[in-house]
Write a structure and sequence with these properties.
Length: about 110
């Protein structure tokens, strides 16, 4: 995936501080996992995305319906990183996925 634009990442950093925010994944995206890596298939658009171990972890949490706050907490605990770093990396990932229509803010 190409790098996200910085204004989109900044938007996600702000959104991740909103405790009322709910995220959802496109229900038509197919996911498969091999070990701690994953692949997403957007059949309608004819695109697929490779996920590293952290992105795979986040994808599974999104599918469970975790809130942004829970995502940051789980990333912090799983990877032993400070919350600010977890939030910053999560903003980049969500910016990438939302630009492709894979993840969105639930109304």
């Amino acid at each position: 995936m190409a790098g996200p634009d910085s204004s989109a990442v900044d938007k996600w950093r702000t959104l991740l501080n909103d405790d009322r925010l709910a995220l959802e994944v496109d229900e038509f995206i197919l996911a498969t996992f091999q070990g701690d890596r994953g692949v997403l298939l957007d059949y309608d658009r004819g695109e697929y995305y490779g996920l590293n171990d952290v992105a795979t972890f986040v994808w599974k949490l999104l599918k469970e319906g975790c809130s942004p706050k829970q995502l940051v907490e789980r990333l912090t605990n799983e990877y032993d990183v400070p919350p600010d770093l977890a939030r910053a990396d999560l903003a980049v990932l969500l910016s990438n996925l939302s630009a492709r229509g894979v993840v969105r803010v639930r109304d």
